[in-house]
Design brief:
By secondary structure, this protein is α+β, with helices and mostly antiparallel strands. The termini are far apart. The structure holds biotin. The site of biotin has 20 residues, from α1, β3, β6 and β7.
């Protein structure tokens, strides 16, 4: 299992997707000191300043049907949480589907991308891209995210090497994927829900077509879809789109 370490790159996900498409094996990882075009969910940019954060993409070739691939995002979230607990002895929260939170502020995010659908199992893969604010101090956050972002340094007072954090996360991810292959999603979902910091909170779902639904989060179901109950009592199932925090 190769680890590609780079000073700088446009996006570790971009390179990992290319490497996976040309056959890179399960567990191969790309890690960069900074990214010039870090990709976030829904086409957003991911700020990736040098020396402050972890920017990594890990290639997975799990022994799973393609329908289970979207659930890998939850598996990756759990792996990051377990690694943080081991390294810092604190537990993060999750904001559906893939944000790592502390004190209602975002500390990291996960962007999972998959190969095009193919019936040939050996050609399928997923790339799990993880961006984590490790050693960022408050004043170092860009204006547009300050107030909504945090880092492991801010939350715990500990400054740790990005490499150490990477090694732990990669090991945890490979272990969690193995247990997902063996035991399925039920256990993953149960553990994920224990750390769901949005459960019962008011939020707004901005659908891909721009429609907005406000309501209370009921958490994800066994397919990974988020359920929201709006003020009329109607329940909505969310597959994609942006979730914003509302006023409780
Ligand atoms: C999100 O929008 O919350 C997901 C952010 C994911 C960012 C990481 S940083 C490493 C990897 N490479 C990318 O271009 N994006 C992901």
């Amino acid at each position: 299992m190769k680890i590609i370490k780079l000073e700088s790159i446009d996006s570790t996900n971009r390179l990992a997707m290319e490497m996976a498409a040309t056959g890179a094996e399960h567990g191969t990882a790309v890690i960069a000191g900074c990214q010039t075009k870090g990709r976030g969910r829904l086409g957003k940019a991911w700020q990736s300043p040098r020396g402050k954060g972890l920017y990594t993409s890990i290639i997975l070739r799990p022994n799973l049907p393609l329908e289970s691939y979207p659930q890998l995002t939850f598996v990756a979230g759990l792996a990051v949480a377990v690694a943080i607990k081991r390294l810092y002895n604190v537990e993060p929260g999750f904001k559906w589907p893939n944000d790592i939170y502390f004190s209602m502020k975002k500390c990291g995010g996960i962007l999972s991308e998959t190969s095009a659908f193919t019936s040939e199992a050996s050609a399928r893969f997923a790339v799990v891209g993880i961006g984590l604010n490790v050693n960022t101090s408050l004043s170092e956050f860009a204006e547009d995210v300050a107030g909504r972002a945090t880092s492991l340094l801010i939350e715990t007072g500990y400054s740790k090497g990005v490499n150490e954090v990477f090694e732990e996360i990669r090991a945890c991810l490979l272990a969690e994927v193995e247990s997902f292959e063996k035991s399925g999603f039920t256990d993953v979902l149960r553990r994920w829900r224990e750390l769901d910091c949005m459960l019962g909170r008011r939020l707004a779902w901005v659908a891909v077509n721009g429609d907005i639904v406000e309501g209370i989060s009921l958490g994800p179901d066994e397919m990974g879809r988020l359920h929201i109950r709006d003020d009329t009592g109607t329940e909505h199932e969310v597959l994609s789109g942006d979730i914003q925090l509302g006023k409780n």
